[in-house]
Fold these 3 entries.
Entry 1:
Amino acid sequence: MTATTLFSYWVYQLPNFVLAVVMYTMLGRVLLGLFVDPDSPNYIWRFFCRLTDPVVAAIAVVTPKATPPVVVWLFGFVWLFWLRVALLYGFLLMGAVPKVS
């Protein structure tokens, strides 16, 4: 795969990359949440929270209020995974995904 081929599929690659970053940051938040207090001044924890809070807020709307935050974060990870799968499937149907040769 050449660089021109890679750049010609940026419409698929960019959203997929952004979703992957948020998804794995959500998983990192779950794992780090086991060791760090929720109001910790740790800069890595604050970055994870700042990046994933919009997703957590969207997931919290459809999740019961009695659910612990860690479970909401895990649901966010799963929802982002399935959103990436749906994105791939949609682009596959449109023929806009790089072909494996």
Entry 2:
Amino acid sequence: MNHSKIIVGVRKALNNWLRQFKVYIDPGQKLYKIEEGLLNIFKWGRFEPLPRLNYVLVFRSFYAKCEACSLDENADSYYQVSLVHNKNRKIITHETKDISEAFTVAEQIAKGLSLSLKDAASVPGKSSWKKF
């Protein structure tokens, strides 16, 4: 029997007091579940097989508060951790405003699934492969 540790990510940019989103990854069984909750009481979602994954990606996602707002370095943003599959499809597994938290979760996922980690968040406009 495989006793792998389940990795949990939280979609903080989408969470609020009414709706919550969590992503569960079971590296040993190669399964994932996107769980949506309502009022932190009702929860739904089911485990599904992971697609054939290419790599784990950390990137910075900007949220403009208005159409005329600029997306400069002071813009509201989140760091997102995603599982990339089919070359450009993504399963967003974690969102946070803390870059170190994003990389902690990304490294945990990359190690658990034996995937490479691509850093598209640290240096604007440049991506690199992170070694650990």
Entry 3:
Amino acid sequence: MKRAKLTGSQVIWIFATVEIVIIIWLRISPAIQSNGQDAWMTMTLAGLLSIPLAFLVVRLCAMHPNETLVSFSQRLLGKWLGKAIAIPYLLMWLALPAGALRLFGDFIHLVLLDRTPVHLIMLFMLCLMTYLTYTGGISGIGRFCEIAGPITILTLIVSFILNIGSLKGGNLLPMYAYSGWVHILKESVSPVSFIAEATVILAVIPFVKQPRQVYSRALIGVGLTGAMTVLATIMVLLVFGPDVAAKLKFPYFTLVRYINILDFIQNIDIFVIFIWIFGLLARLSLYLFISSYETAQWLRIRNWRRLIWVGAAVIYAMAVWIPNESYFTLTDQLWPIFVFPFVGVAIPLLLLIVSVAKKQANG
């Protein structure tokens, strides 16, 4: 295992950047469709539940400093069982960026480049993420997030401020009228899986320079993501109301397009889209690094960069293969029921229990 290369601030901004861009982009509309004006409660609960979940995964990684999931799972469970445990993660580290890449292509094709084929838009992003991953590795991605992360947060805050004149407090009323706590808790599972994304935490923590910082830095990143998600959901509801917001595919970007101050400050959505692209580039590059590095560990290949080209090709092929939006609808249905409980909770909890038991057995 190579020496870790991430600073504490880079850990914060990696978590915040790669999660904020995806959850605000994809999860606000489904939350409003399911919970109406109580969607902000769903997001708030998701943010609170993300803290102990993130702590569980960080605790597991902290017990195996400077070791990746592929490495310590084999040491804990044996070579073959340890490798088998890692397979779902290796698949997820390819499937998740493929889905995000396809959504990126479809989105840019819809709002900006309607005459450009989607596969060419995706190919352009693929070249950027491959370049960043190959030349910078995890440290380069961390430095990029230190720039993209604060800009993303600042852009969100500015967009919220510019929409203050359009807020309608009545859009949040009546509170807790159509959904109960059981329903809110059930619907919070999917946002939790994005705010405290175990597949990212498991892969990033082993590269931290100072292991003692992992708890505070990881939890700050997760907390920042949760807070911005709640604020974005509240703003969308206050401006559009639950009925209109539920019909919007990308409610936050519609919120930005809605900004119009004295017919002078308007049409700033293009600027926000480019800022969002920076965050998505960081997310895709991170997943390409994770899949390449961990697969190299799994196959015992010393030079992980050799697998970047394979990983990039597989991600692109999967993104092109995705037929239509029914794929994402099916994914949304299966993710909180089968995938997240397994790879996000059950396996990390199992590995943590085995780690604690072995530590106590060894005195």
